[in-house]
């Protein structure tokens, strides 16, 4: 998610240390204020919209290099029920984009990219409304994002009921096993006619730890 800078002189910085946008040139330099981690660590199984799996959870870690006291920037946030999050699709497999795309909900039919949630757009920027659950100092239970195994089970059931497979997998790979990750659980399953069966649940591999992060966390629900 770290933005890259164009060669040349650096625009003047604002008092808070952020880069002043060079709008007159048509360019906008941004600095990530934090990194988002969710219970879905891979593309497979990730719901295409938050309402599909209301039990999913995520955590926003604020970078300590943005402010001298990052926790001060979160003061008063607990008074609100939801937060708007502007983010970058930094894991896009390629940088190209097309005017028409084939979203899963249309089963192969094409439509304009701006009428969809496709991450492959001219500027890979997304906007989401997230439910704010709590602010905490980074302490974790056995699950990273869920309070109990029951909560994790509900999330897995919601993912399966929405059939997260791509159109290609639904039509040409019906007999193949499907894998996805929720929190610390790696799930192996397969889909039949109007049902899904979980064959195995095992611990997922540990994610890569990021540095330069503040231990004040924003816990998000959908």
TrEMBL record:
Family: Belongs to the tRNA methyltransferase O family.
Organism: Canis lupus dingo
Keywords of this entry: S-adenosyl-L-methionine
Taxon lineage: Eukaryota, Metazoa, Chordata, Craniata, Vertebrata
Protein name: tRNA methyltransferase O
Matches recorded under InterPro entries: TrmO-like_N, UPF0066_cons_site, YaeB-like, YaeB-like_sf, YaeB_N_sf
Domain TsaA-like: 30-176
PANTHER family the UniProt entry points to: TRNA (ADENINE(37)-N6)-METHYLTRANSFERASE (PTHR12818:SF0)
Gene transcribed to yield this protein: TRMO
Organism superkingdom: Eukaryota
């Amino acid at each position: 998610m770290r933005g890259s800078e164009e060669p040349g002189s650096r625009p003047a910085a604002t008092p808070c240390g952020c880069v002043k946008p060079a709008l007159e040139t048509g360019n906008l330099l941004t600095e990530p204020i934090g990194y988002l981690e969710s219970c879905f660590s891979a593309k497979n199984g990730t719901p295409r919209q938050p309402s599909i799996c209301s039990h999913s959870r995520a955590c926003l870690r604020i970078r300590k290099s943005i402010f001298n006291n990052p926790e001060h920037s979160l003061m008063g946030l607990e008074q609100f029920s939801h937060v708007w999050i502007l983010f970058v699709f930094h894991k896009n497999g390629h940088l190209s984009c097309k005017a028409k795309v084939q979203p899963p909900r249309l089963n192969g039919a094409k439509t304009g990219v701006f009428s969809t949630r496709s991450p492959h757009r001219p500027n890979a920027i997304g906007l989401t409304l997230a439910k704010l659950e709590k602010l905490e100092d980074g302490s974790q239970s056995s699950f990273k994002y869920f309070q109990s195994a029951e909560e994790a089970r509900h999330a897995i059931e919601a993912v399966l009921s929405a059939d997260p497979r791509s159109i290609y997998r639904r039509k040409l790979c019906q007999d193949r096993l499907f894998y996805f990750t929720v929190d610390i659980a790696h799930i192996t399953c397969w889909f039949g006619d109007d049902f899904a069966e979980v064959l195995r649940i095992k611990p997922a591999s540990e994610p890569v730890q990021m540095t330069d992060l503040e231990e004040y966390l924003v816990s998000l629900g959908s």
